[in-house]
Amino acid sequence: MGKEKVIGALIFIFALIVMIYYTWGLVLLQNPWTGPALQDWVDATFPAGSLLHTIFLPPWEFLVILPVWLAAVLICIIAMWIGWTMLTTPAPEPLEDFDFDEEAVEEKKEETEEEKE
Fold it and tell me: DSSP class of residue 34?
């Protein structure tokens, strides 16, 4: 398997895990019909204060603030990349510095006119 496919598979798996986690945390745990039963299951399964208890019973505020923060950071990183690219890229040479052969340009114009006829 190529390097690109491995990276693609990792991105796919990461996105799937994040999607499942957000569905669990924001849809199922905050739902009045399923939320209390799932919260009771987490309380009974994992000791209070443990890492797994915190992972399986995240506060909804965290699940809302995290993607907003990540989006802001991503926008800033893209802006920094654009600025860095503009800063480090040399300016292009002006076109008038190039020595064009006017006869060759005229010949190409004549050839295209002949082809049209």
Answer: T
